[in-house]
Amino acid sequence: MDREDLRAGVRDASPLFLGIVPFALVVGVAAVEAGLTPVQAVAMSVIVFAGAAQLAALELIGETAPLSVAVVTAVIINLRMVMYSASIAPHFRSFRRRIQAPLSYVLTDQAYALSVARFAREGNTDRLAYYLGVAGSIWLVWQVGTVAGVVVGAGVPPELGLSFAVPLVFLALLVPAMKDRPTTAAGIVAAVVAVAAAGVPYNLGLLVAAVVGIVVGLAVEVGEKV
């Protein structure tokens, strides 16, 4: 493994840590607010490792929604990883499955974007080393940030709950993503549906909103190409 490419991956990912750390802190706090024990909160972060999906699931868990609803919602939010995987897979086709599996586990939006850009720009890059530098460092920072958030959340008195931080983070993620007509339409429609369906039993409103938003976004994108 090329150590220089490994260091390059860490170096390229490091500017992103400024955004990842506060996001991870909020996820840790949200986990405690949702009623998870510190061990459960950290275990969820390690096993799931999916920021927006974790927040959505924690929000539903905090509202006592059925576990199945929380899981399905998280899966729908993470469907984009299927496209990322299909796109980046050719770069790791020569590796064995026992190596590919851990690589898929640490796949994130940032790891995908940085890696495919590097592979396209510099063909002689040690792909495994660079990807691990990016994805591995992001994973480590995320876990440390989540643990810190759990510690902070566990030390905050119930009357000073920090649940307001979750919608603020979602807004911070949503606004920059609405950069074209499909994503803007998806975001607006999903928001309207989520508010309208707030009273749906078992907190299914969020799941319905996510599905409708995705469908609308895809429809607008297809309409633009016709």
Mean model confidence by pLDDT: 84
Please state the structural category: mainly alpha
Question: Whole-Å distance between the termini?
Answer: 46 Å
Shape: globular
Helix content class: over 70%
Order of helices and strands: HHHHHHHHHHHH
DSSP E strands, number: 0
Radius of gyration: 19 Å
Number of domains: 2
Percent strand: under 5%
Please give the largest β-sheet.
none
Ranges where pLDDT stays below 50 over 5 or more residues in a row are none
In DSSP terms (H or I, runs of 4 or more residues), the helix count works out at: 12
Membrane topology: Multi-pass membrane protein
Organism: Halalkaliarchaeum desulfuricum
Main location: membrane
Family: Belongs to the AzlC family.
Q: Please, could you describe this protein's structure?
A:
Helices cover 76% and strands 0% of the residues. With 226 residues, it is an all-alpha fold. It folds into two domains: 175 residues, no CATH class; 49 residues, no CATH class. The protein is globular, with a radius of gyration of 19 Å.
Q: Which features characterize this protein?
A:
226 residues, 76% helix, 2 domains, mainly alpha
Task: Summarize the SSE layout with pairings.
Elements: H1 3-13, H2 17-33, H3 38-48, H4 51-62, H5 67-77, H6 80-88, H7 97-105, H8 109-121, H9 127-155, H10 165-177, H11 181-196, H12 205-225
